[in-house]
């Protein structure tokens, strides 16, 4: 049986997935922690948090009619608290379901 304290210990990747899935109703959501590629990066030296860099691929019907900049802003706004608490960099691929079905 999971305890309430378990939610506090969620990894940043799991928090990101949860926030994006809930708000954007993603049909595809991939969150990859690539922090290991930046271990010696000056901006993360001395940071005890090892989850600082992520690649996010998200497909959501809520992106329909939105520019790429607006889609990215939507993601950044949802993750504002993560960005304030140690998340350093995000690479975002944000598409609508229609944009993925036509691509071969």
TrEMBL record:
Task: List the InterPro entries.
Answer: BolA, BolA-like_sf
What Pfam families has UniProt attached to this entry? BolA
Please give the family membership noted in the entry: Belongs to the BolA/IbaG family.
Stated name of the protein: BolA-like protein 1
Originating organism = Stylosanthes scabra
Q: What is the lineage of its organism?
A: Eukaryota, Viridiplantae, Streptophyta, Embryophyta, Tracheophyta
């Amino acid at each position: 049986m999971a305890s309430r304290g378990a939610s506090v210990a969620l990894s940043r990747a799991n928090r990101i997935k949860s926030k994006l899935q809930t708000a954007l109703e993603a049909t595809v959501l991939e969150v990859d922690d690539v922090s290991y590629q930046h271990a010696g990066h000056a901006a993360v030296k001395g940071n005890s948090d090892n989850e600082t860099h992520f690649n996010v691929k998200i497909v959501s019907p809520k992106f329909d009619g939105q520019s790429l900049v607006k889609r990215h802003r939507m993601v950044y706004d949802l993750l504002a608290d993560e960005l304030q608490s140690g998340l350093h960099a995000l690479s975002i691929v944000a598409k609508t379901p229609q944009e993925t079905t036509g691509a071969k």
